[in-house]
Amino acid sequence: MNDLLNQLGLVGDWLTSSKQWHGAEGIPQRLLEHLTYSGASLLFAALIGLTLGLLVGHTGRGAFAVASVANLARAIPTFGLVVLVVTLAGLSTTPVLVALVALAVPPILINTFEGVRGVDPATRDAARGVGMTEWEVLVRVEVPMALPLILLGLRVAAIQVVATATVAAYPGLGGLGRFIVDGLSRNDYELVIGGSTVVVVLALVVQILFTALRRVIVSPGLRVSASKS
């Protein structure tokens, strides 16, 4: 117990030290790098996952292929993919983005697909019956009703990406993983635990932000239905 308290005290000292908040290796700079990798990866993953999920969910075509590809992507080890792409493409942000996008696409794609396909067929038929085009049915009926699951997929992907973007440090790039990798190489566990703590806090912030976003843009009725399901 005393050892745990001592470690927590050391981490507290590390986090509150002024030198950790300034310079190219300070927390703000590393956090900015981490958010850059995470944000870019999530953006590309959302473009892929949402587009395919909405298209396949609305038409019902290619559902088996999409599910198979998504499950295959889940099985790919993120760190192994980073090492492979570094070997092929050289040291750059490309390996990190490729690996993180591959990690983030499946939850977005699957939840978007399931959300759209889960819309009551009678509701779709009623929308078509009043003269809505297929595009209007998708945008005005299916997407709003699928929003809880779509946001769930984005939230899961965002948290996974934020937690896993530490792999950017392994090929020599920056981000919060730099604290962990450097700490391990120096046997500086204060640095390792401190960096890990910042990553955990960032993941919790992402969770809170998505929860708040859900409360703002999802109607109360759909929130209740989603929680019951």
From TrEMBL:
InterPro entries: ABC_transp_perm/SBD, MetI-like, MetI-like_sf. Its main location: membrane. Keywords: Membrane, Transmembrane, Transmembrane helix, Transport. SUPFAM superfamilies: MetI-like. It is a multi-pass membrane protein. Residues 31-210 form the ABC transmembrane type-1 domain. It is found in: Cell membrane; Membrane. The keyword Zinc does not apply. GO terms for biological process: glycine betaine transport; transmembrane transport. Gene3D superfamilies: MetI-like (1.10.3720.10). The chain crosses the membrane at residues 35-57, 78-105, 145-170, 191-213. One of its GO terms (cellular component) is plasma membrane. Belongs to the binding-protein-dependent transport system permease family. This is ABC transporter permease. It comes from Streptomyces cyaneochromogenes.
